[in-house]
Amino acid sequence: MRERGRGILFTAIAALAFAGTALAQQAAAPGDAKRGKELSYTCLGCHGIAGYKNAYPDYSVPMLQGQHTEYISAALHGYRDGDRAHLTMHSVASTLSEQDIADIAVYFAGKPLESAGKAPANVPPAAALCSACHGADGVSITPMYPSLAGQHEDYLKRAIEEYAKGGRKNAIMKGFASNLKDADIAVIVRYYSHLSPGLKTEPRPYSILTE
Fold this sequence. Notes:
Elements: H1 2-25, H2 33-39, H3 44-47, E1 53-54, E2 59-60, H4 69-81, H5 87-93, H6 98-109, H7 125-128, H8 131-134, H9 153-165, H10 171-178, H11 182-193, H12 206-209
Antiparallel strand pairs: 1-2
């Protein structure tokens, strides 16, 4: 079982290298947070309100402040290109240019979380394999993977379910998610959602962007 986990991890790292190359090939200019603020008036109607929930199905929209800029950009590409199934997000993302995505991503990310460099003492076994990519302290090992510290518990559960069922197209995550039992998912999402310091809802104040 341990060897199988290592094999999956090696495949994930290889996939990451490929994804990073592809991202570099289509990279826009560096993001402009002030322009991202101007473009995000629609986004803030959901992602700028603490406790706001997606309706039907009902789950919390993800917190983005502190997330990696590169991951937010990759997620927007996924919604735009149909690799993630969400009608509202697809409608919004389909109108965005490469530069729009870069600007919005850097605005919402703010200052990404930084790893403390050590694992908490109580990492549950169910989350051990997740920590290889997402970090034992919830801060991912690469900006192409999302940090999970402090993220909404119900959102994390929904994301895992979407990977398992194909609502999010990612071969590596589908392999992980499809093999998880409900009890394992409950342990994983509870563990990561309670880590601190964690992600937040509110983007950086506009006053900071103008300094």
